[in-house]
Specification:
8 helices; 0% strand; globular; DUF309 domain-containing protein
């Protein structure tokens, strides 16, 4: 059975598709009422990697600093996912950022068994690096306009 975390991990380690990692966990995090702080931490970790690869070192380091401040709040949720929290804290001190996730032993074994079955990406390196530029933002823009209109009606 694949979970959003398993999907995130395979995208992270097999494709280095940090943008898609963010998308996968963002959807799961939202669906769960934004309660899983482990998901929130890993979303931020993917964002830091995305910024770093694009050469936005200040943005990456800002994301890491914010994540470090929140890490103690997410420990329980991260551990439940299979993250080794001590290793994660050490990894947040490293630069450049590690290209693998700090997984506990059983989770690492599971991921390594799944990697050969994970389809390779069809994206070019440039498409991975600048993925945000290629996405269709129509649903997001439409929802923002709908929310704005609803707020205007509520004020009347």
């Amino acid at each position: 059975m694949s979970t959003p975390f398993i999907q995130y991990t395979l995208l992270f380690e097999c494709h280095a598709d940090y943008f898609e990692c963010h998308e996968v966990l963002e959807e799961a995090w939202q669906d769960g009422g934004r309660k899983d702080l482990g998901y929130a931490a890993l979303i931020q970790y993917a964002v830091a990697h995305y910024h770093a690869r694009r050469g936005n070192t200040p943005g990456a380091k800002k994301s890491i600093a914010a994540l470090q401040q929140k890490l103690t709040l997410a420990v329980t949720d991260l551990e439940a996912l299979g993250i080794d929290n001590a290793m994660f804290a050490r990894d947040l001190e490293r630069w450049p950022l590690p290209e693998t996730l700090p997984l506990d032993g059983p989770t690492r074994q599971r991921i390594e068994r799944l990697k050969p079955t994970f389809e390779p990406t069809v994206l070019t390196f440039d498409e991975l690096v600048h993925k945000h530029m290629y996405r269709d933002r129509t649903p997001v823009v439409t929802e923002r306009l709908r929310a704005l209109e609803a707020r205007k009606k509520a004020r009347r």
